[in-house]
Design brief:
By secondary structure, the chain is of the alpha+beta class. It has one domain: Nuclear Transport Factor 2, Chain: A (Roll). The chain contains three helices and five strands; from the N terminus they run E-E-H-H-H-E-E-E. The longest helix has 18 residues. The relative contact order is 0.15.
Length: 132
């Protein structure tokens, strides 16, 4: 009988706090979805947003109030690489692509990464824009 090697399945609770229909507990996100949500949260977190962990964040929202220029896009790219590299040990970032969208006052962002112990790349598309 052959053994099947299983990779660890990562899990986090759903930040939308949706209720499971049978157990009435918070729904759990697993695998790719859990890691995508974690990366999205890291990118959208500013410094000092998390109590007692003020050093975690990318400060991307602060940079969105600057002029939409390619220079600001480079700063955003560096901040995203840094925050994912420092605080998401489950992934290895391949590419962060940012294109300026001056008509919509934001940045189209594509983050491509590989989950450890898996071979297929995963991609997240985010649009970074000012809220106020």
């Amino acid at each position: 009988m052959t053994k099947i090697a299983r990779s660890p399945d990562y899990s986090d609770f759903d930040m939308d706090f949706t209720r499971h229909p049978t157990t009435n507990d918070v729904v759990i996100k697993t695998g790719e979805d859990a890691i995508k949500r974690s990366i999205r949260n890291l990118v959208f977190t500013n410094f000092y947003d998390r109590p007692f962990r003020s050093y975690i964040g990318s400060n991307a929202r602060k940079m969105l109030f600057e002029n939409t220029t390619p220079l600001t896009a480079n700063f955003l790219r560096d901040a995203i690489y840094e925050v994912i590299g420092n605080y998401e040990p489950r992934v290895l970032v391949n590419h962060v692509g940012i294109s300026v969208s001056p008509d919509r006052n934001g940045y189209d962002t594509v983050i491509s990464f590989i989950i450890l112990n898996r071979n297929q790349p995963v991609t997240i598309n985010l649009f970074l824009e000012r809220i106020r």
